[in-house]
């Protein structure tokens, strides 16, 4: 069985047009220099997922953690903000009550009682 001849290549001529040329008619080209690519960023950290999958937790649990993790952080932040607002309002109300009782008692700013 005969081997097939080498197929013709498409080459670009100096005038910019393309044509077919048999490889034996092409000039010898120097060997290609390998391109070294440097990537200057670290791959994403998958430590938690690897530990979870390695300990027998399924991929569904890992996906749920990836989805609900940031959601839980957002909810806890909102709850903390609400509690801080309620604590501030409680402090303002307590200050108002103390001030009103002092003024009704007659002591006011002087600190002197009835007597």
Notes on the structure:
The structure is a single chain. It is elongated, with a radius of gyration of 40 Å. It has two helices and two strands; from the N terminus they run ββαα. Strands 1-2 form a two-stranded antiparallel sheet. The protein is mainly α and about 120 residues long.
From the structure above, extract its key features.
single chain; 115 residues; mainly alpha; two-stranded antiparallel sheet
SSE arrangement:
Layout: E1 9-12, E2 18-21, H1 47-54, H2 59-105
Beta-strand residue percentage: 5-15%
Please describe the biggest sheet, giving its number of strands, its sense, and whether it closes into a barrel.
2 strands, antiparallel
Summed over residues and divided by their number, the pLDDT gives a mean of 77
Strand order of the largest sheet: 1-2
Helix content: 40-55%
Number of strands: 2
Oligomer: single chain
Shape: elongated
Helix tally equals 2
Using the CA coordinates, give the radius of gyration. 40 Å
The low-confidence parts are none
Please outline what is shown here.
The protein has 2 helices and 2 strands; from the N terminus they run E-E-H-H. With 115 residues, it is mainly alpha-helical. The chain is elongated.
